[in-house]
Amino acid sequence: MKKIIILGASDGLGKAIASLCLKEKIEVINVSRTACDIPGVVNLACDLSIEEDINNTSNLIKEKYNDFDAIINCAAIVAMEKINEITYSKFERAFKINTIAPLYLLSLLFDNIVKNEADILNIGTTADLKAGFNDQLAYTSTKYGLRGGSYNIGLELAKTKSRMIYVHCGGMNTRMHEKDYGLKIDNPEEWMDPIDVADIILYLLKLPKQIEITEITISRKKRRLG
Ligand SMILES: NC(=O)c1ccc[n+]([C@@H]2O[C@H](COP(=O)([O-])OP(=O)(O)OC[C@H]3O[C@@H](n4cnc5c(N)ncnc54)[C@H](OP(=O)(O)O)[C@@H]3O)[C@@H](O)[C@H]2O)c1
Question: Residues enclosing ligand 1, CB less than 6 A?
Fold first, then answer.
């Protein structure tokens, strides 16, 4: 792998993947609103809730970074309103960023993905394996949508050399819950370090092309069994 496009490498898991890529001399193209501050990362400013930004980003990738080997989607917002307090606009924003943007961008780049024999890896959640968690109606729904769209893209890729990998990711020690909701993690040692998850993600992408892991769960160790 020589070049990877990461949606959401300015922070959290995406940034952790970017840092590992650079250590391995893999070029990183980050797509997010704010820049990734790791020296060497190419930043494409894009608000994934805006259609025009996504179209421009797709055009820029086709013009200048067309020879990518993989696209990893880590960008998302958490959307944690109580069920009787959620607003239409919050629902809409979460779907735009978490579901429509990555799937739409992948469809715009689909021909390039096939031509490059590039792989796609979408980050989901353990909430899209079950009913989700309380106060996460919008978030859970967006990730189920991402999961469904990912399988559909996987179907389209079945006759190609490209692979679609979907990761049900559990709780990580990032600032995701803090940024919009002020929720700080008070027991970080019980949450996954994004660097460890990033390591697994790069491992998955480096597997020989005849191996396909379509779906994988990476979660926190349960405190109790049974
Ligand atoms: N953290 C967890 O406990 C946890 C658990 C399960 C699954 N996940 C999943 O893991 C992935 C990574 O989460 P994380 O914890 O690393 O999150 P994070 O630290 O909050 O990072 C989120 C990334 O998404 C980007 N992003 C958000 N809104 C955007 C927008 N409108 N346009 C463009 N980019 C946008 C952010 O960039 P900008 O703000 O610069 O735009 C940032 O780079 C997400 O898909 C999340 O759903 C996380």
Answer: 8, 10-14, 32-34, 46-49, 74-77, 97, 123, 125, 169-172, 174-176, 179
Question: Which tens digits make up the pLDDT trace of 47-63?
Answer: 999 999 999 999 999 99
Contact 70, 164 (CB under 8 A): no
208 C-alpha to ligand 1 centroid (Å) = 28
Contacts of 161 (CB under 8 A, 6+ apart): 117, 209
Widest distance between CA atoms in the chain: 53
Q: List Cα–Cα distances, 67 to 15, 80, 111, 114, 161, in angstroms.
A: 21, 37, 12, 11, 15
Residue length of the chain = 226
pTM: 0.97
Distance, CA of 46 to CA of 64 (rounded, Å): 16
- The answer to whether residues 66 and 115 touch, using CB atoms and an 8 Å cutoff, is no
Q: Could you tell me the domains of the chain?
A: 3-218 (3.40.50.720)
Task: Please count the other Cβ atoms lying within 10 Å of the Cβ belonging to residue 206.
Answer: 11
For residue 165, list its beta bridge partners.
Answer: 121
Tokens at 98, concatenated:
């978490």
Say how many Å lie between the CA of residue 10 and the centre of ligand 1.
9
How remote is the C-alpha of 136 from its chain's centroid?
18
- Kindly give the distance from the C-alpha atom of residue 84 to the centroid of ligand 1, in angstroms, as a whole number: 25
User: Residue 222's pLDDT band (boundaries 50, 70, 90)?
Assistant: confident
